[in-house]
Design goal:
single chain; 63 residues; mainly beta; 4-stranded antiparallel beta sheet; elongated
Length: 63
């Protein structure tokens, strides 16, 4: 199981984060799963870029 050191928001300082086996298919193409968990408290952290979804413009009805 892979691990990294990051600040844990729940613990309040740097902790070891582990990557449990991916069940969502993130690693099927050889990529890295973005889901990590603090080894001490279990708080979840998701890494990577956030997807940007455009919001369609809404037109107001004519008066």
């Amino acid at each position: 199981m892979d691990s990294r050191q990051w600040p844990c928001p729940s613990c309040g300082d740097d902790r070891e984060f582990v990557q449990p086996p991916c069940t969502d298919g993130h690693t099927e193409d050889g990529g890295e799963c973005p889901e990590w968990a603090c080894a001490d408290c279990g708080s979840a952290v998701v890494t990577g870029d956030a997807a940007v979804v455009p919001v369609p413009a809404r037109l107001a009805p004519a008066a």
